[in-house]
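From the methods appendix. Each design record in this collection lists the tokenized structure first, followed by the designed amino acid sequence. Records were kept in a plain field format so they could be parsed without special tools. The example shown here is representative of the layout used throughout.

RECORD:
FOLD TOKENS (320 positions):
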């Protein structure tokens, strides 16, 4: 539930300023996101008021039962009917949250983006450090021969999609209920969090495990929660913001890295100083040339001292 404090513009701006400062002071940031990151791209979450679990499945089965391993194996046709209608959003585009995280990654501060989503939007936005805990609907494979298929193949076929090589049933490369997460992805996520100097958790109610427990691997309390509803970590987090994750991240993450601005600014200043230093002697030289009286006064004494006798003597000495 939204906190009353965050309804006031002043409080919201203050919190975003705090987040901006934390980001500026950090060099090894990790982001952990859930379904709420993609809702602003038009993809419904699971547990929200209008989430998938609260929608009519169009069948006699509950949505939470349909996306389980047992149901998939026993009722694949019903699974794929629900799957295509409720879980596939091929036209969805990255929103402000995805784009802001990519900016942070390009600035060298964001080291890992850990997501529980299966929509590929982080990668579509340009993320190179995404760790997909629950897989992706954009990857599919034959359960018999292992041949891989893109999402287009699933969308182009009705009913159960079968492999065009061996005839085996194809399944999405996503983690269903009753299935374990890939150990490699979990290990990579935990390693990244252990090294983080700032953990930003956004768009998740922190009720899905094991991601809900990842914060315990931090060696400090620098945790920021950005979510419209409350989480069990709200009171333990260093900063909690109950607002749109897209708006918050877009406001807190600079469009350009501050360090680059400073560097470019200092180099320009240095260049200006060097140019000014070079021009100074040139002006002095010009000033000397512009005063012929001084030059004549300097030459006349020299001409008087250099007598013809001495000049002749020096020439004879040179000949000898």
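DESIGN:
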């Amino acid at each position: 539930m939204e906190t009353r404090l965050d309804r006031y513009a002043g409080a919201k701006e203050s919190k975003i300023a705090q987040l901006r400062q934390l980001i500026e002071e950090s060099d090894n940031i990790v982001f952990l996101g859930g379904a709420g990151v993609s809702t602003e791209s038009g993809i419904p979450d699971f547990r929200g008021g209008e989430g998938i679990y609260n929608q009519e499945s169009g069948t006699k089965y509950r949505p939470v039962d349909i996306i389980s391993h047992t149901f998939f194996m026993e009722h694949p046709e019903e699974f794929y009917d629900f799957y295509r209608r409720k879980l596939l959003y091929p036209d969805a585009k990255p929103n402000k949250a995805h784009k802001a995280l990519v900016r942070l990654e390009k600035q060298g501060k964001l080291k890992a983006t850990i997501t529980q989503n299966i929509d590929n939007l982080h990668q579509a936005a340009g993320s190179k450090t995404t760790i997909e805990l629950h897989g992706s609907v954009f990857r599919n494979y034959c359960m018999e021969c292992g041949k891989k298929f893109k999402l287009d193949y699933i969308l182009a076929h009705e009913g159960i999609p079968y492999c065009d090589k061996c005839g085996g049933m194809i399944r999405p490369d996503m983690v269903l209920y009753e299935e374990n997460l890939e150990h490699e992805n979990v290990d990579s996520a935990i390693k990244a969090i252990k090294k983080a100097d700032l953990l930003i958790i956004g768009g998740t109610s922190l009720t899905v495990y094991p991601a809900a427990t990842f914060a315990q691997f931090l060696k400090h309390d620098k945790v920021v929660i950005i979510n419209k509803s409350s989480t069990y970590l709200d009171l333990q987090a260093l900063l909690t913001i109950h607002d749109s994750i897209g708006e918050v991240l877009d406001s807190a993450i600079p469009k350009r890295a501050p360090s680059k601005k400073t560097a470019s600014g200092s180099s320009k200043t240095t260049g200006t100083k060097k140019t000014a230093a070079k021009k100074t002697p040139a002006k002095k030289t010009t000033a000397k040339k512009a005063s012929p009286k001084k030059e004549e006064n300097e030459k006349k004494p020299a001409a008087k001292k250099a007598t013809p006798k001495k000049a002749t003597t020096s020439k004879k000495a040179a000949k000898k």
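APPENDIX NOTE: The longest strand covers residues 135-142.
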